[in-house]
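Posting this for the archive.
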Amino acid sequence: MSAANFGLSLVVLRNVPLFSGLDESELEKLSRVSVRKRVERGAFVVRAAESTDSLYSVLTGRAKVTNTDEEGREIILAWLGPGEFFGEMGLIDGSPRSANVVASEPCELMVLSKEAFQRCLQDNFQVAQKLMQILVRRLREADRKIESLALLDVYGRVARLLLDLSVEEEGRRIVKKKISKQDMARMIGASREMVSKVMRDLELSGYIATENDLVIILGA
């Protein structure tokens, strides 16, 4: 899985939210030091405890951030889609990778070296500001997840997860991203069987409906 030896086009860079505020000259500089990397479904992009040497942004495809519990079971911490990035924490504090990132479908990534990332932050306050805003948002989301695990039963955790994954479209809240019961279970700390039961109960009670691969939240 070697990185492609060419810079990213300006069009691609403009679609990465972290760098969207840069002017043409700064985008050109970034383009010259950035490379694309393609990974296949199921491949590890980074592994927990590895040294941190690059920032990654997802251009196409989806990836999951995972770790394992004491019994070796996979825990899904987050999903990453186009425009989202990872690897920034270790570049800031010098610590090893804190989690695995695995491609859940074929992905194309933008890779920026540690030196290029730090130079970009030093030269562009708007990138540093955007990074801080995104990190604060992630911290708030992590706080909500911890609160959910501590205070809500499985029904509440499934309901909150569906709301977090949903988007508003034509006056309805819809979960458009296909997600398996097993992956839902790994995200909320429950068994697949319990998640299946809760989803079935929510549908029978009229709280959700399914259409093909979509989940529609009723009354939201």
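Residues 1-6 have pLDDT under 50 and may be disordered. The helical segments are 10-14, 24-33, 88-93, 114-123, 125-151, 154-165, 181-188, 192-204.
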